[in-house]
Amino acid sequence: MRSIWSHPSWQLARRQLRGRLSRSILLSIAVALSSALVCAIGSGMNTMRASIEYRIDRLVGSADVRVIHDYAGQFDAAPLNTLLELEGVEAGGGRLGGSLTLIRTDEATDESGRRARITVSARGADIDPEDRFAQIELSEGRQVAAKHEIILDPMTSERLQVSLGDSVRIQRFGTPIDLEIVGIQNRPMLGALQKPLVQLSRETLVEAIGGSDRIDVYSLILEDSVDVDAWVVQHSDQVESPLVLEATERISSGFDRQVEGGRLAFIFASVIGFLACSIIVGTGMTTALVEQQQELAISRLIGASRTQLFLSQISLGIFLCLAGGLAGLPIGVGLAMALTAWFSDFLPAGFELSWISLVLAVGGAVLAGVLGSALPAFLASRVTPISALAVQARPATLRGVVICSLIGLGMIGVQLVLMLIPEVQLRFWIYSLLGMPMLVGGFFLLMPGLSRWLAPLLGRLGEVLFRIPSGLLSGPMRSAPYRLGLTAGALMIGMSILVSTWSHGASILDSIVERVRFADAFIFKTTGLSDQEVEVLSSLPGVEAASPVGYLPIRLGAEARLGINAFSPQNVICVGFEPESFLELNRIDWIEGTPEEAIPRLLEGDSVLVAEQFLTARGLGVGDTITLGPEKREQTFEIVGVVGAAGLDVATQIFGIKSLYMEHAVSCVFMDYEAVARNFNTREAYILQLVLDAEVSEDGEAELQSEVTRVAPGAMFSSGRAIKKIVMQAGNTVLGVSSTVALGALLLACFAVGNVVAAGINARRFEYGVLRSIGSSRWLLSRIILGEVVVMGLLAALAGTILGIYLAVMGMGLHRDLAGDLLRISLPPTPIILGTVLLVVLTMLAATPPLISLLRRKTRELVAAGR
After folding, report:
1. What is the pLDDT of residues 794-818, one digit of tens each?
2. Domain boundary at 247, 276, 300, which?
3. Is residue 704 situated within a structural domain?
4. 201, 149 contact by CB (below 8 A)
5. Under DSSP, is residue 549 helix (H, G, I), strand (E, B) or coil?
6. CA distance 753 to 424
7. What is d(CA 706, CA 621) in angstroms, rounded to the nearest whole number?
8. What pTM value is reported for the model?
9. Using the 8-state DSSP alphabet, how is residue 197 labeled?
């Protein structure tokens, strides 16, 4: 160890470190902030990813596939355990629903003096130590972990006046069963239609209702790498009719794609953070390149060998970058933890440390530091010491700038070629590990050319803004495109992170909004709404539009029945709807057909839409026909579309009203509302979908609910906005956290590059001393420096915006290929404007301390710095 510290290379490195201590400190701070940038981005995005998965798991469950009874019946659980042995299955479990009457164990009474009791819907699930099948978000407490435990929803807790730690009793024929309350569900109150809900173990529920080991649904969680839809098709023959193997709402609604998208966003963010760190550190290490060459040339004159020069520079780079990189780790982790605490309402999964980001932070800093510190030694070793001493700053040649730009364009071209790889998994990893570095590096090398060609415009703009004499700003900009361009390139990275992250997050949010597109409110009436009631309800204050939906059982021709004809029901549910208003209100997934072609045909009255299962089970699609109607009076209808309504699947699951939409839409056809009336002599609407005025508040919805009850006795009003709010929490998590991470990344990048700017100012003291010696005032000097910083910031904002959009487009393309989710590019102006302002202001703030230090120095001190 002693020989290492006494090695000539290390002694030389220590001497250089002491000789330029202030600049070394600034560069170390830049490295620390760059390292913190990677940690904050990686851990922040990893935390966001975990919370998105948590929200979606609690909303629609963790299960990917389920087995159900085609006619909503119960079935034996034991034979289905063989599904656990299939390839790709990670876990499985059964669930049973039932009805229980709960009372307090202390025999307390309610306000009327009667014993407090409530009848609830009960969900019995197999106890899972990892809570993968719980599908419940708790406001307090924990999940059920033992037989005699129960979770209540707020409605049940309020009605019985019990809380966490109390006990309730199942009232039944036979011995009562006492259960301890171990959790309270975080369940919104959605109106009169919603039933109280409790969760307990399936074993306890079977005992309470006195049944056998039968279940309503058997759920399966597949491995992440499994294509769920293909797996369902491949193994559909593993269950016998009337059982059906199908994908859950998690898959049909596309929320699994949001989970996959969150993982992709984490990988992209980690890689871009690593690149940002590398470029910022590399730029900082090559600050004052000519001065470093001259220092190394002097070392060669006094006997240092080329090998010793290389080793000394590499030792210096490793020391500065390793120290700065390690110092930045707790800063980055601390910032990510603070972010998690600040957004705790949106991040229920809590803080998730990204170990990958820690490795990338230190590795990126050290790698960039070694390469950056070796560059001046390499340049100095190529010439004789006398030639290196004679090197002075000189204008960059147009040829060099063009070559640099062509190399940058070539690197971008390589990235584009890599995107042509046909195999999507290989393309993703090649893009992440090679294509993205080539892309960012290519943009970085384009910056000197961009600086050179925009110098007349931006330089003149800076001279006008800061009242600088003509040529004092634009002239140096033209002569030093590398210094200005590469420093702006380091700043560009922070801006690109902001634009790409915000754009990607906004696009995912738009996708989530689209997936839960359905009405603002629903009115239900089990006996049907008459035309007069529909008309009155549609004209209530606050209602902008209404779309009635009717349904009736109707006989289906044998050729289209699902399952075995001898056992399958003869009827299907015919949903009557107004095509244009219904399709405008609700998101419909068109498996076959298009709305443009289907709507005119539906209005003609001789066509229908059918559920996806008609296509998969009977091969009936667009152009085929089915017969509907009573025997001997059947009518033939052409299929003009095969559809699924993922948003309504989510809505009905949260409402708990699937019986009104059908428990499972496997035997459902959609027909024009007027065509149902003409063909089958019924016009009753059982569901009325409402579009509410944007000004209608929650209090306004309560008033509307009272009006609905008065106008149409027996009708029930429920808010669709409450459902959207639940689903939107996942989207808000994406946008809110990713935007904050991106702004934090920009902040760290600006201060990191600000230290590079400060190091550059410190290295150019001689130039400023010359200006002072020929009569320039301190105020003019400060305006020149600040003007250059502003121009640099504007240049970085322009390039960063372009790079950010490019990264967003590339990321969304891979998101589409890997997650199967087609995102639309979203470019909100707010992040671009906010990022530009922040970038310029923060860089000016970072440059202020060295500027003040520079202005305090006397002219002769500045001139002496060049000796």
Report:
1. 888 899 899 888 888 887 777 666 6
2. 247
3. no
4. yes
5. strand
6. 36
7. 44
8. 0.61
9. E
